[in-house]
Amino acid sequence: MFSVVIPGRPCLTDIVAVDTQPNGQATKFAFSFPLDASFTDLVVFFLPGTVLPQDTAAAIYIQMPDPNAGPNGPQFKFIGALANEKPSAIFNVRPNPSPSVGATRSEAEEQDEMLDEGSSNLSGGATASGTVTLGISIEPVQNVAPQLAELEAQKPQSTPSTDLIRQPPEQRQKKEVSTKVLAQRIIGNAFNFLASFASDSSGKGQEVVPLKSFQDWWTKFERRVAMDPSFLEKEDPNAV
């Protein structure tokens, strides 16, 4: 049903069913693979033809080697989920650090660790070891949704503001153009075009615009919109 890709490694297909319902349908699966220092990301995806039961999702959990784990061993951590509407995803994961959480190290200790890592890499050894277990559990959507919400809440809150800062100036200007301004610019565009066709054919001081001129303006206006849908949102929208 599922497969896993770890950058730089062959695609994992040796999935193991770890829980089966009385009807014989498996609901929990696991992949195991060795940990190395370069492991930071993985991709989980549905194999072709995989369809989850209605109102369910595939919750993804990971168990990383942790030398500081208690007697029960490392705990599984929820990292995301897949669904029929989202059959694949990339997950960013990092090995647990060797020191206990909250421990403070001196600059000299950190430099020593960096030297040890460099020596290990040069000699062909790995700076991280152990076995990673990836668990996939088919669960009701109502059970997975709160976990996804909690995971989303843990993400840095600076991302939306960063996106706004990086937004191009023309996009910011585009959002500031209101419906009223657009209507005024359409009317102004039509007036500027039709004014050159106005004439006092009756001699009564009342200028009249032929209907064909309006039809010509509308044809050109439609063509301009098709070529550049945002031209009315720019500073000088009057030229057709």
From TrEMBL:
Which residues does the annotated region (Disordered) include? 90-126, 152-177
Q: Which InterPro entries match?
A: Hikeshi-like_C (IPR048364), Hikeshi-like_N (IPR008493), OPI10 (IPR031318)
Q: Which residues form the Hikeshi-like N-terminal domain?
A: 5-154
User: Record's GO cellular component, any one?
Assistant: cytosol
For molecular function, the Gene Ontology terms on record are: nuclear import signal receptor activity
Tell me one GO biological process term: protein import into nucleus
Q: Which residues form the Hikeshi-like C-terminal domain?
A: 178-234
For bias kind Polar residues, which ranges apply? 155-164
Q: Which Pfam families match?
A: Hikeshi-like_C, Hikeshi-like_N
**Family stated for the protein in its record:** Belongs to the OPI10 family.
- Write the protein's name: DUF775 domain protein
Task: Identify the species of origin.
Answer: Aspergillus sclerotialis
Tell me the lineage of the source organism. Answer: Eukaryota, Fungi, Dikarya, Ascomycota, Pezizomycotina
